[in-house]
Every structure is written in C-alpha cells, then in structure tokens.
Amino acid sequence: MTTFTPLSAFPVCSKLGSHAESMSTFSIASALDSDNTRAKEFTLSAAGLELDYSRHLIDRKALSLLLDLAKQSNLTERAAALLRGAHLNNTEDRPALHTLLRAPRASGSLAPLFSEVEATLARMKTLSVRLNGGEHTGFSGMAITDIVNIGIGGSDLGPRLVTEALRPFHGHLRCHYVANVDPADLQTTLQNLNAATTLFVICSKSFRTEETLANALGARAWLLQAGANEAELSRHFLAVTTNLPAAQEFGIPPDHCLPLWDWVGGRYSVWSAVGISCAIAVGWENFGRLLTGAHAMDTHFATAPPAANMPMLMALLEIWYTGFLGAGNHVVLPYDHSLNRLPDFLQQLTMESNGKRVSTTGATLDYDTAPVIWGCAGTLGQHSFHQMLHQGTRLCPVDFILPLTTHSSISEQHMRLVANCLAQSRALMVGRSLESAHDALLRRGFSQAKAKELAPHLVMPGNRPSSTISMACLNPETLGALLALYEHRTFCSAQIWDINPFDQWGVELGKEFGEDILRRLQGSGDTFPPLDGSTERLILAWLAEHPQPEEP
Ligand code: F6P
Prior knowledge:
single chain; alpha/beta; five-stranded parallel β-sheet
C-alpha cells in the first residue's frame, strides 16, 4: 500500500509542494470575504453547466502553479491527441474514441469509423421508434411494454443512470436493469412483468461476462416457461456487443444485434448502442439531445485554454487534493434525486479508469492516483455521513451538483432541496467556532457550565472545500454535458499521473479465481490443489450446506 507522497513528476511540483505547506493557514471564507471578485472569477461556464470552484483551498498562486502543471503535462496537446484518435490506450494498442459517438461529423482517418457509428445510430433510431410505436411484438403478438437491460459495469451503470435521470422525458415503455449474478436481481425484476410483452437487451461488450450470460440464460428460461417457443425467442432479445458470433450462438440473430467497437471503453459507452435502453425509454429525439450536450462539452474541452477549461480545472483540483494536500477521497452529492445513481457511475468511471499503481510504461508510482469516490443524492447523506464531512478528521472535497429548477410539480419542496444544498456547502466552509457553539448552547437554555462542557462537541472547523456544478435544468443536453465533463476530468487527471485510464487489468485475477472456485463448488469429483486455509474453510462451509447427492 502506498503512503502519501507528493506528486513529483514535473518541475512545478516542488513549488506546488511548498505552496501547499504555506496554505495551512489559508481560509476559504476569509478569501471570499476579502476579495469580492473571487466568487465570480473562480466560476466557469460551459455547455449549459456552471462550475463554482471559489470554495476551494486555493489562492491565485496555487491556481497559477496548477496551470503551469497543465502546461508541463501537455494537457491541451493530450486532449487533442485523444480527440483525433491517437492510440492513448497504449496497453491495448488502440484509441479511446467515445467522443466520436456523439460527434456530428468526422473527417480523415476517423471518417470510416464515423460511418459505422452513423449506421448504428440509424438502426437504434429505427428500433426506438418501432418499439415506442408499438410495432415490435412478442411471442403472443402483443406489443412490447417493458425493456430489461441485462449487463454489468459499463453495460449497466451508464444506461441505468441516464434512464433514471431523464424520467420526466420517458414515453410509455418501462425500462428495468438487471446486473447482479445473484438470482434475486433477475427474479425481483421479472416478478411483476409479463413475458409476452418483455424485451431483453443483452448488453455486453465482450459477451463473455459471467453475470450477464447467467442472467441472459435465466431470461431465456423465463420466456420458455411462460409459453414462448424456441422459434419465437429472438423477438424478445436484442444484443449489444463487439462479439457478434457469441451473441448469435446464444440465439440472437444478426438483425437483432447492435455492434460496438473495441475503441469504446465499457465505462465510456453509454453514447453507443449500449445506450439503446435509454433511447427506447426517452425516445430518439431526447437521446440525440443527450449526445448533443456531450458534444458541446467535447468542443469546450478541445478549444478552451486550461484556465477556462472546466474538465482541466476539475482535474487540476483533483491533483491538488490527492497529490499535495493528502486527500484520499472525493464526495459527489447530487441535489436531484433523479441523479442518485451518479456516484455509482462515477465510481466506475474514475476508479476503474484511474485506480492504477504503475505508469503508462509500467514503472511503479510513488504517489497516489484515483481517490475513493463516494456519495449519494442530497439530502439523504445529511442524515448519515455528513457528520463526518463536517466534523471528521479526513479531508473530503465535495462536488455538489445542483439543477436550479425541477420537473416536479411540487416546487415548494424543491426550494427546500436547493436551500439544503446551499446550506451544506456554506456550513462546510464557515464552520462554527467554540464561542459561537457556546452561545448557541446558552440560547438553547443550557447552563453556563453545561454549555462550556458541550461546546467542543459542536465546534465545526469549517474550511472544508467544495465545488458546485449548477445548471438551469437537468435535461438531456445538460446531463450529456455533465457526464462528458467527468469523462474528460478523469482523462486529464490520468495524463498528469501518467497512467492509462482506458484499461482495467486489475479486474481479471478475481474472475480467474472465481472460475476455479466455482469448479470446486460444483463438486465434480476432481481433486484440486489446496488453496489458502481461509478460502478452503469457507468452501468446506458451503459444501456442508449443499451435500452432494449419493452416487447411484
Ligand atoms: O470486469 C470489468 C468489466 O470488464 C468492465 O470494464 C465492463 O464495463 C464490465 O466488466 C462489463 O463488461 P462487458 O460489457 O464486456 O460485459
């Protein structure tokens, strides 16, 4: 395990390190009080989003040094290389071209790939329009009413988030998501559905993922049990994959398979056919608006200078906290219940991308990379973990996400939500002194002695940093821009850390061990080399609960 070592890879890092030390007395609240331009100057707008980063532990010197870091790490050139399709996924020798999925056009070497994207979008549109028009029928001839996306990781989190976030834009079709290999996930989802009117989207880039294949087989068995015959099954399945032969072997014909390409990473894939369930749920026009919003953020990312570039600035802040101030985590608090899946989505996006311990060339890093991402929809966390944010011992930078209007008709309640969001970021910053805690206790009727005794428990140190990312309204465009913002933030941090954000070798060993342990649980009668004592004991405990049938 690494201990905190300041980032040292670039010449400016030593200056950043000493400046970080001199910041120990910096007060965010005083900086805002003494400089009435700070709130405005430390705010950026792009693609319908506004980032207020004035409540951070940075002064103008820190900002200027961080911008030197952006320059020394060639962030602008790296962004251009990403967008033109350079092989930045060096360990897998391919580009990461998720931005092409939402581009209105492409030229040069990207043109042939773009034609494939356009052709796939056209097929997605046809599917979405037919399903929404009731033209696609199941085995009994009834129109499809429910879509179940079966996928996991990037084949689940992005579509699930987008579908939930855009609920006010839904048509009449209902979308459900099944990810876990635990059969309870599939069973719970299917228990209220009618097999004759349910369509499954088997979403798997590899079409080899254990959880997804197990659930796909479960779905097939459910349909057969409900009266579908083998010949009619394909009406109930779509596949989204790079592995078309495997999908066809499963029984999904080519005209029900939507392609995906190896230059789209799973966690960056919601813009592709992986997003078909969203496109069905919100209708084709709204899915197009999502892509338009993401593309607006891509254009900003490609063209704005680092000082005015929202993803770059967010990455520089992440580097500042993890690399110089020792923060090991980052909290995301969307004050919009429809974004309650955002922290889950960002966990995969940032921790699968940047949870790495070696550089692009394989050298062991001596500094921390991705922070732990966590959070939940406001105001839920206020009644659980915000205690730690306000009075705990760890530095937890927060992103507050704040749509300023609601789709709900109960706007008075939304006003309360907004008030809570603004109150939390302000309380984190201003805190409460011993004196004010003491006075508050006296006002509550405590005696002098009791107030003195209790006051330290009410003290809140304050000076706790946060960003607020606001938007006039959460709609397909602003949602697209928000997700693209975090994608590019993740990319920029990876460039400074010199890691490849587009591979995920770390997930493989557990999968291999899982296959081996499954064979042991299946009790094939084979003898296996012993494992460690703890795993062996737990396998024996499971076997004791599942006695093998006697040989006849
Ligand atoms: O195991 C990790 C992972 O490969 C993720 O990167 C990916 O999003 C997820 O599994 C699902 O993979 P697939 O889409 O190939 O089923």
